[in-house]
Amino acid sequence: MSLYIRRESSKLWKRICSETTTEINLLVENWKYILGGLICQYIHGLAARGVHYFHRPGPILKDTGYFLLPELGQERAYVSETVFTFVFLSFVLWTFHPFIFKSKKIYTVLIWCRVLAFLVACQFLRIITFYSTILPGPNYHCREGSRLATLPRPDNLFETLLIIPRGVLYGCGDLIFSSHMIFSLVFVRTYQKYGTNRFIKQCAWLVVVVQSLLIIASRKHYTVDVVVAWYTVNLVVFFIDNKLPEMTDRSLGALSLPVSNGRMKEENTKLLNGNSGDPIDRRLRSQANGKVNEDGDNLHIEGLDGA
To answer: Which of 63, 228, 283, 301 has its Cβ near the most Cβ atoms within 10 Å?
Structure first.
């Protein structure tokens, strides 16, 4: 048993090292896109905090979702946040699975380049909408009588630029478009395309539907915010995904990286295949002209000879 554990641990360590080298090479080529996407995340948070200064509490608007769904109450507001946190962390962990698992379809750096592109486009539209029409927030801390409903004039520039933690937890006025729904829908659509487990895909969509209802029941957004997010995010992701070059499928072959000589090319091929020369893995990846079919938890590779 101890011999088996040591052997498997050694294989895992080699896989992590080889994958790290591969992802570093990709990060060197694509760091500008990653950095730009992260900067835009901060700009989005800054814009949401800025609109809070203009927010004025008022009567809650008539909403069909509020009429149909019972109110969870302020003491249960954590439920929707818990569901969102689960979706967020699950997706982040999935994007790093190539470092651990032998069977892999994506590159971590490349998948985040696409995800950040989707998020930035959706958040840009969101900023336009909530600055165009500032509605009275339905959340409990945005209602009349709450000291957080309107932010006082900032004492200095640093106070305005600091968006954590209050700017994230106690925002008001950034409506028309649900930020949580943007993240969740982008993550689920990405897994729908690049994930391999059909059951998880079905559960992911179910969780997003439940999260939509919880957001409304928690009175964090109006129903229109959730509805607009559902069709806008899907349209934006569909449009941008068609414009971006298709990401290489690791299960079908290797990605070409800049190489300086034949030996480096051979090493990069091994790294991109996610192994250090495992003969079984080489036999699987030699069927690069085959196709990968999703079937529950299993991944089937069919060569052209079997067609």
So the answer is: 228
